[in-house]
Amino acid sequence: xxxxxxxxxxxxxxxxxxRSTGSGMSVLKLRVAVNDRRKNAxxxxxxxxxxxxxxxxxxxxxxxxxxxxHKGSKIAVDGKLRWREWESPAGEKRSGVEIIADxxxxxxxxxxxxxxxxxxxxxxxxxxxxxxxxxxxxx
Length: 139
Fold this sequence. Notes:
By secondary structure, this protein is mainly beta.
């Protein structure tokens, strides 16, 4: 038996990229930063070290999320890992692991007070929980 599940929470490092396949299916590409804390051997202080993950989701979910997510949005991702390889424009072989999302849950308050609905829509109703005490997200 094999298990391939991954769950992460983090912040988008750039705005999502929505594209369509030749058959018209929507594809949303995200880049998520997830911090890991490590103790610096020299200073003895705890430091944050970012890990970056490419995340992909499809169809109606992709279209709905593209409308509400932006650089800095905090999200939770549940999905599976997929290894892929491709050739660069220069002809070099490349490979990488990405997360194919089964579910993406926005965790940041939505501008305008709406909430995300998994069907791809956005509903009004819940008010934002406030800002981050004036702190800026570092990406």
